[in-house]
Specification:
alpha+beta, globular
């Protein structure tokens, strides 16, 4: 999504306004069948590496939308992710996390700033996101020896066809890494999103409610 930053540069002048508008609109009502139990990923497994882009300016919005660089998932999804990470470590690889649970108001900001012809890459806030339920994770692979991300067909949050998980014109190395990540995630109950190779939804996502609480608030309710 960094490739659309020039289109959205005007947002730099309206950071407070966007947050205010999003905060004034409530998320869609959703009754979850399971009680939310968000778990911090790198506390559960310190070898999960974080690169929380939305806590920085290195994202398609061009400014931070999170106040803290942290990542959470519902406990069953988080524990499944730890198993994926452990399995990949045998191949000299680890998981690099870009995002996990996402407050609903951030989903609304993303929707409002994204051009209409790119909205396939963001969730409609009227329906809520699987990130809002704590059951979606954005991630890639990194090399345990070098601690550097492996080459993938596209950049994270790139709004082009290269981001599609079945894109055929990637280099053999990048395509192999993308497919390896997908296979490892699917083995533990995750499913790749049809437009983004880095986005995976956990199998029980529909059992959880849409949430709109900050990362700091998670600490207070646990």
């Amino acid at each position: 999504m960094k490739h659309t930053r020039s289109v959205l540069i005007w947002l730099c002048f309206l950071p407070g306004l966007l947050v205010l508008v999003a905060a004034q609109t409530p998320p869609p009502p959703q009754a979850g069948q399971r009680k939310s139990e968000l778990v911090e990923l790198n506390v559960l497994d310190p070898t999960l590496k974080l690169d929380i882009r939305y806590a920085t300016s290195n994202n398609f919005v061009g400014r931070p939308v999170y106040k803290q660089a942290r990542a959470f998932l519902q406990r069953p999804a988080a524990e499944a992710l730890v198993r994926v990470n452990k399995a990949l470590s045998k191949q000299g690889l680890g998981l690099l996390i870009f995002d996990g649970y996402r407050p609903w108001y951030v989903t609304k900001i993303f929707w409002e700033v994204t051009p209409d012809d790119k909205k396939e890459f963001v969730a409609d806030p009227a329906k809520g996101s699987r990130h809002n339920r704590g059951c979606a994770v954005d991630l890639t692979l990194y090399d345990l020896k070098t601690e550097l991300p492996v080459k993938m067909p596209s950049e994270f949050d790139e709004m082009t066809e290269r981001s599609h998980p079945d894109y055929k014109c990637a280099t053999p190395e990048a395509q192999k890494s993308r497919d390896l990540l997908r296979a490892a995630m699917e083995a533990e109950g995750f499913k790749v999103y049809e437009n983004e190779w880095w986005h995976f939804d956990y199998k029980d996502w529909n059992l959880y409610p849409i949430l709109d609480i900050s990362f700091a608030a998670i600490d207070r309710v646990q």
